Amino acid sequence: MSDGAVNYTEEIVTYRRVQGGTPPNASRECIKVYENGKIRIQNKKSNLNISVGNADHANHFLGKRGSDAYIVEFDVPKWFDDFLNESAIPQKGYKSNPLNQMGMAPKIVDPTTPGKSYELPYPWIEWLEEYSKGGRIR
């Protein structure tokens, strides 16, 4: 007999960001991870570059940033990832693309590197912070 409770399992997608490293190849430390798994994006006025899905893109850049670099990982709901994929446009020709939503559309970046990556402007950065969970440092 059921107790009436419904167990929903939400599909998630893992996002990553390479931070730190050795100058001059270091990457800004934009994301802070708290013990409870929440993340805080320190500067919401600057675009934020992230790797999406498998770790190929993040691992590629981890090797370029130097010995003090690390990867921040966090999870977002699949619906958020779907929304990002539907809204993103290529970086090449971004400014003249009418789909750029006055500069608020995510950019598809690094098409010649392994994996998938985006550059997120405001308000995407705030949404990312709001809907992410399970933040961790790898």
Task: Give the number of domains.
Answer: 1
Query: What is the residue-averaged pLDDT?
Result: 91
Ranges where pLDDT stays below 50 over 5 or more residues in a row are none
Walk across the major sheet and give the strand order.
6-7-8-4-1-5-9
Helix content: 10-25%
Order of helices and strands: EEEEHEHEEEHE
Shape label? globular
Can you give a write-up of this model?
With 138 residues, the chain is of the alpha+beta class. It has one domain. It is built from three helices and nine strands, in the order ββββαβαβββαβ. It has helices at residues 56-65, 78-87, 124-131; strands at 12-20, 31-33, 39-41, 48-52, 69-77, 89-90, 107-108, 116-120, 133-137. The strands form two sheets. A seven-stranded mixed beta sheet has the order 6-7-8-4-1-5-9, with helices on both faces. A two-stranded antiparallel sheet has the order 2-3. A hairpin with a 5-residue loop joins strand 2 (31-33) and strand 3 (39-41). The protein is globular, with a radius of gyration of 16 Å. The chain starts with 11 loop residues before the first strand and ends with a strand. The mean pLDDT is 91.
Per-chain topology:
Layout: E1 12-20, E2 31-33, E3 39-41, E4 48-52, H1 56-65, E5 69-77, H2 78-87, E6 89-90, E7 107-108, E8 116-120, H3 124-131, E9 133-137
Parallel strand pairs: 6-7
Antiparallel strand pairs: 1-4, 1-5, 2-3, 4-8, 5-9, 7-8
